[in-house]
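[agent] plan:
  1. take the single chain provided in the ticket
  2. run structure prediction with default settings
  3. attach C-alpha cells to the ticket
  4. add a short note for the reviewer (M.T.)
[agent] executing step 1
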Amino acid sequence: MHHHTYLWTGPKAGFDDEALRRPPHAEPPPAGSRPEVIDRYRQVAAEFRTSDLPPLETAYWLVKPRSLVRGTWDETKEAAAWLGERLAEYMPRSAAEADRDTARLARPVDAAERLRAGADVSYGHYLERPSYLTLAAVTCSPNRTLPELPCPCA
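[agent] step 2 finished; step 3 output follows
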C-alpha cells in the first residue's frame, strides 16, 4: 500500500462546477435528449479524466493525469507530513480567520491514522476570495473505496 498526494488551488467558480468533478454516467443520455444535456455529457466524458479539478470523490484522483501527483509515499507519516506542510504554507491565506490558527494544523496526525487504516484524506479551504484549496492523500494498491481504479504509477 502507498499514498499519492494532490494539491489544487483555483477559482471557486471552477471548483463549484460539480458536473466536471464527477465521472460521467456509464450510460450516455438517451436518444432524443435535449441538445444541451447531450453536449454536457460529452463535455464531462471528454474532460473528467484530463481536468485538474478535484473530483467529488477523493479516490477518483487516481484516474487523473499522472502529472497531478505531487508526491508518492510508502509511509503514512510522510504523506501526512506533506499535508501538514501544505496546510502551513497555505493557511495564512485562508479566508476564515479560524483556519489561520496554527493549532488546527495538527490534523495531519489524524491523517496518518486514517491513511494507515486505508482511508483517503481530503481537505478543502477557502483562500482569499474567490480561491479554493484542495489537498488530498489517496491510498493506492488498492484504494479501499474504489479498488478497481488503477494506480497512476502503473
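[agent] step 4 note for reviewer: The mean pLDDT is 91.
[agent] ticket updated
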